[in-house]
Design brief:
alpha+beta; three-stranded antiparallel sheet; 23% strand
Length: 226
Amino acid sequence: MPGSFILTETSTSRTKPEKPTLGSLLRGLRARNGWTLKEMSEKTGIPFSTLSKVEHDRLTLTYDKLLQLGERLNMRMSELFAETAEPADQPFTARRSIGTRETAVAINTPNYDYYYLFPELRKKRMIPILTRILAKSVAEFGPLVRHSGEEWMYVISGSIEVHTEHYEAVRLEAGQSIYLDSSMGHAYLVAPGHDEAWVIGACASADEDHGTVLMSASQELGKNPA
């Protein structure tokens, strides 16, 4: 995909940070709270063995399990996908961060490969996501997905079809974008003539109290289901 859309480090003298993973984020979360794996399992309702495999990057979590984890721990999704240990009530002013695909948190599902950008920032008002779209038909995709908030998606390369429950399907080419109500059932598909497509966008919570910011469209089953 075009490199111009991904910011990269230009300095070779700086030590490259270790790529964050869902496992490293869960380990950090557990360490900050002083929980054992058993205690975290009891708090989240996710089996001990599953959490252990996730922490060692041998397994990812399905979308529904990620939602369950956030809800049980009373955490926003933006806090879950963050590395720092800043106090929850600390105000944020003049924030700035450089995002790369290499430093993003990668989550793979049958329909999408997600790259959650800026994992070092906590309590984000929006969730920036780089996404590789894989599914090529509604039958392959499965049920339309819906979640709270709104989202914007811009096509970087390839072409996509956007299916929604209240509108006719629309085809978008590279350089075009769409903004939609995330609570409306929707699916992003690779348009005919392409093997894959890349989009970049952001999901924002509609909650006034900046409640849980949900991830963009995804299937409930990951490539490595828990």
